[in-house]
Amino acid sequence: MKRTRKSSLTAGAALLLWGLVLLFAVMMSVPWLVPHCGFLALFGFIPLLCMERIASMLGARRIWMYHYSAFVLWNAFTTFWVCNATVGGGLFAILANSLQMSLIFGIFRFSKRYFRGALPYIFLAVMWIAWERVYFDMDISWPWLVLGNAFARSVQSVQWYEFTGSLGGSLWVWAVNLLVFALMVSLSNGDWAFRYNIKAKAALVSACIVAIAAPFILSKCMFDSYEEKYDPVEVLVVQPDIDPYQKFEAMPQSRQTAILLDQIELSIPDRKTAADTSSVQAGSPRDKVSPLLVLAPETFTNDVITNDLSLGRTFRRFISFLKDYPGVDLLFGASSYTYYDRPDAPSYTARKVRDGRWVESHNSALVVDGTGASEIFHKSKLVVGVEMTPYPAFFCKVDDMLGGVMGRCVGQDAVSLLHCGDIPFGCAVCYESVYGEYFTGYVKEGARFMTVITNDAWWGNTPGYRQHLSYSSLRAIETRRSIARCANTGISAIIDQRGTVLEQTPWWEPAVIRSHVNMNDGVTLFVKYGDITGRACTFVFGLLALALFVRIVLNRKADYSRSARLR
Question: What is the DSSP annotation of 73-130?
């Protein structure tokens, strides 16, 4: 009688597999939830790899259920807070992101039919990092759980991100997980005792120790030895603490503007006095007064018309206020609009106002001073669904049929700088601070320091706003640029070039920070050469994918030949 393959697991085996799934989800979630726990990610994939190995040895079916569930739990534990802003969007983000991760793991399992030894595991690592790299540039992009982000709250561990960026951290995570897993497998299957000689044992153990310890040691040395050049510019970060769910309904814009300007006026009385004195002594006060940049949060106002900024009441009020403060520039966020008078739509994203009139919306950052001189920057990395419609040629038509439920903000094609006096700086608007290589664009254009303006209150008092703050620390390390961060309800912060948060505000309280950030003209290797790690892993993935394809073709030809001979 022909023996059939066992298709069901015992209760104990199933419990073991689900236990490993849960252990993976917990170990990979803790770094995003608890400060200084990034090191757990170095071992977090081991339970998942053990689950796959045990399930395969037991002949379990539908193993995809285990690894997909593992990724769903990890995504849910760390990013559940998205549901506070949009339940549908949050669930989609969790399930879709998990599906992509699970697909990668499924391809890895498939590759084990054709690759032997360590090769399928190397294939898994480079495939994962290649996906992370591509994910940064996709229209539907949610790279919140890039593995290198696990160290965002452990900045003393990853000072070498100035060379590699966050994907260097992803490579580190995979290298340690796979080396330790290889050590565990060799101990469990007898290779350690019967096949490995002393040199092989020493090599494997040494590789594990070096992979774990060397980056920590290098980073600590870099952290302790790094010295910022003292080249300060003064900043005033204003946190007005206005509930975003109420700001455009319950409180008029004039009242919000008054709250912000009152905070500014109380914080810089000396600047007004200095300006009055300077105006007597010189015809151009800005020549005598050192620059000061005031930061207000993202989408502070919604009455900015890019065709003619003077039409905006808030914009005019800011100019009137700043006339008494020469040398002071105000950076603020705005929902802005560009109007077009033409018979046809100027773009897929434009909405019709009336016959012959169209409007495009933006999430913008503006700088203005008391003379009325201004600059504007439109956010480019937009949140899918809420701010932008992906693949607009198709989905804008679908959105029109649904009544226009998706956001249609239009961003810039490339980054541009703003100026405080004559000092160039970059402004990453909210979600843009998650994108490391994109962030370097400001520095390449000549930014001497960076700002981040955001509005994180949509998520409530959850880990979301703390995670978002921590990503700014990674951007500071990668570019070695100090960052002034302004959040509507917190956390606003001053971050130095080592990624250390020097000052921060409380959550959901009106607050200001008056401080300095040091400017820098230097360029890191990551800024100069970009994401070398991601490109290298993508190249290796391409080679291995080609090798896998060739093996599949050759194996099928061999099977066909055998079948032909048997006939």
Answer: HHHHHHHGGGGGT-HHHHHHHHHHHHHHHHHHHHHHHHHTTT--TTHHHHHHHHHHHH
> pLDDT exceeding 70 applies to what percent of the chain?
95
Task: Classify burial at 77, counting beta carbons within 10 Å of its beta carbon; exposed 0-12, middle 13-18, buried 19 or more.
Answer: middle
Output the pLDDT for position 567: 66
Which pLDDT tens digit goes with each residue over 61-76?
899 999 999 999 999 9
Residue matched to tokens 């607009």: 392
In the block, residue with structure tokens 């990674």: 474
What pLDDT was estimated at residue 284?
A: 46
Cis status of the peptide bond prior to 494, with omega within 30 of 0: no
97 and 73 Cβ atoms separated by less than 8 Å: no
By residue count, the chain amounts to 567
CA distance 164 to 452: 22
Going from the C-alpha of 95 to that of each of 69, 142, 144, 465, 525, the distances in angstroms are 10, 12, 14, 21, 36
- Taking CA atoms, 107 is separated from 97, 115, 494, in Å, by 16, 12, 43
The domains of the chain are located at 11-225+532-566, 232-335+363-528
Task: Please give the DSSP secondary-structure letter assigned to residue 461.
Answer: S
Q: For position 226, what pLDDT does the model report?
A: 97
Supply 115's token pair: 């690759």
Q: Which residues of 131-144 are buried (b: 16+ CB within 10 A; e: fewer)?
A: bbbebbeeeebbbb
- Asked whether 238 and 295 are in contact (CB, 8 A), the reply is yes
- Which CATH code fits 232-335+363-528? 3.60.110.10
Q: pTM for the full model?
A: 0.92
- Closest by CA to 165, choosing from 143, 184, 140, 181, is 143
Tell me, what DSSP letter sits at residue 349?
Answer: T
Q: What is the pLDDT of residues 373-415, one digit of tens each?
A: 999 999 999 988 888 888 888 888 887 777 777 888 999 989 9
Tokens, residue 186: 């060799």
Q: In whole angstroms, what is the distance from residue 481 CA to residue 443 CA?
A: 8
Mean per-residue pLDDT pooled into runs of 10, the chain (567 residues): 55 94 98 96 98 93 94 97 88 95 97 94 98 93 96 97 98 98 90 79 92 97 96 97 81 93 96 57 55 97 94 96 95 96 90 92 96 95 86 82 82 94 96 96 97 92 95 98 96 98 96 98 97 97 96 85 72
Nearest residue to 453 via CA among 440, 463, 468: 468
Residues 6+ apart with CB under 8 A from 212: 42, 176
Residue 34 zone, left/alpha/beta (φ > 0; ψ -120 to 50; rest): beta
From the list 430, 421, 428, the residue with the least C-alpha distance to 387 is: 430
Q: Provide the 8-state DSSP code for 430.
A: G
Q: Tell me the C-alpha distance between 397 and 411, whole Å.
A: 19
- What is the C-alpha to C-alpha distance for residues 235 and 241, in angstroms, rounded to an integer? 19
Residue located via tokens 């890039």: 146
What residue type is 456 in one-letter code? D
Under 8 Å between Cβ of 436 and 152: no
Residue 449 identity: F
